[in-house]
Each structure stands twice: as C-alpha cells, then as structure tokens.
Design goal:
single chain, alpha/beta, Glutaredoxin, 8-stranded mixed sheet, 9 helices, globular
C-alpha cells in the first residue's frame, strides 16, 4: 500500500489541472515487487483528477508499447505532452521523485518557458535524440535540482529524452554504471557526471553526446560560434548561469503571485 501522505500529496497537486495529461505506466506481473505500489500510485493520480488519461501496460506482454516508449525497466511512468514531449520516471515514487513527477504533469500543460532564451535557442542546434538518465535517491534534496534541469530540457526540446531513476530500486544498474555518488547523470551511452550539474554543463554534455566535438577539428562554442577549446566557452557558461539564476528568481516570484490559483507550471 502507498502511504496516506503520498495519496494526500497527489490529491492536493492534481486538483487544478485544466488540460488532459497522458500518463502511461509500465509494470510486470513477475519479478517486480514494487510494481503493485506503482499501480496504486497511478490509480491515485487518476482518482485525483479526471484530466489524467491513464494507460497501463505490461513490459513483456505489450512489447510493442515498451519499444515505442523506450522502456527498459519496471515500474516506469511516462508523462507525455500532446506534442509528444515525454519524461520517464522509474522506481518507487516517493519524496523527491514523486514531487518531480507531479511537477512534470503540471509542466506539460504549462505556458511559461522553463529556461531563458539563450538555453532554448542553443538546444535548437541539437539534431539527434540524446537520452539522459538521472539517478537519485528519494530523500536526496540535492538531487532534485539536477533532475529538474534534465526534465526541463526534455520538455523544452524533442531531441532530449529524460528518464529519472530511483537508484536503490535498480542495484544492477548501479553496478553497471559504477555509481558512487548521487545524483549521477548519464548523457547518451557513455558520458557521465557525478553530483551537481549546472545548466551550462548539461548543454555541453548534450552536444558532446551528440558527437559535435571531434579530436583535431576546429571546435567552436555552440552558443556564440567563437573558437573555443570547449563546446560552451567560459564566457557563455557564465552568461548562461547568470540568466538561468535570474530566470528562476522571476519564475519563483510569478509562482508566489499565482499560488492562490494552484501549483506552479512551466511550459
């Protein structure tokens, strides 16, 4: 059974939803002890708002759907916007991961930009699908900002595919990736970063994962176009971080003003 506090958080969050949101849950009838609770969480979401369009599938029996959504583990929630943007959440959703899921549900129908223009315009240069995985713990408050950036990138650009993973539920994955510190972020198939990751570092790692940096080539900053030993030059990194901080502050003020009308949303 899921905790009553979890159910209350879900009820409080979903009351103000004004547009439909598609939530897809993948589970398994065999070898998944935490799948029943995931199903209860999904049903609590559906009961909290008629705007939640819930679909449930078995990762093995519904293989076509599993492949369509790129699901590799259970349980996995996929929150999908009407234009196809999607974020996946895998594991026991409590604490940090649950709050991220609820924020994402509201964000897919939001109207405000997640990032400042410089980040949004730079993301448009991506031309390939880049998977991003953020491994975290549900009681790790320092993990949340990193996962929020990854979620925001996926909701900002269709070429970023983000999965938030509750690390404790997948010990084999931790062993394979040799994870020692959380949060742990994977870009593409091989690039990884431990601990806090800033917006500018996320951008650079995305373009590295796409293969835009090759040895011996004339490398230029993807933001300003000037020659640079790094994909995002130091000057642009400073500007991006300053704009990101300013954007967050303005966003928080807007959220405070609109708190009486319901949860804060991004677009």
């Amino acid at each position: 059974m899921i905790k009553e506090s979890t159910q209350q958080i879900i009820r409080d969050s979903f009351g103000p939803l004004k547009q439909p949101v598609r939530v897809v849950l993948f589970t398994s009838d065999t070898g998944c002890d935490i799948c029943p609770d995931a199903l209860l969480t999904a049903r609590a979401m559906k009961a909290a708002s008629a705007k939640i369009a819930l679909e449930t599938y078995d990762i093995a029996m519904d293989r076509d759907k599993s492949e369509e959504y790129g699901v590799k583990r259970v349980p996995t929630f996929a929150v999908q916007a009407q234009d196809g943007r999607m974020v996946k959440f895998s594991g026991t959703l409590e604490g940090v991961s649950l709050l991220l899921l609820l924020d994402t549900v509201h964000s897919v129908v939001g109207a405000r930009p997640w990032f400042p223009e410089k980040i949004r315009s730079t993301l448009k240069m991506l031309s390939q699908k880049i998977p991003v995985q953020v491994l975290l713990e549900n009681d790790c408050t320092l993990c949340k900002p990193v996962a929020e950036i990854a979620v925001g990138l996926a909701l900002t650009n269709k070429h970023v595919s983000t999965e938030v993973i509750v690390a404790d539920d997948y010990p084999e994955l931790l062993s394979t990736l040799k994870v020692k510190i959380l949060p742990f972020t994977v870009f593409g198939k091989q690039l990884t970063l431990e601990g806090h990751v800033s917006e500018s570092s996320f951008l650079e790692m995305l373009f590295r994962a796409e293969g835009q940096k090759a040895a011996g080539l004339d490398v230029r900053c993807v933001v300003c176009g000037q020659p640079s030993p790094e994909l995002v030059c130091s000057s642009c990194k400073t500007k991006i971080q300053a704009e990101a901080v300013d954007h967050k502050r303005k966003d928080e003020k807007l959220s405070e003003r609109g708190s009486a009308m319901g949860p804060h949303t991004h677009g």
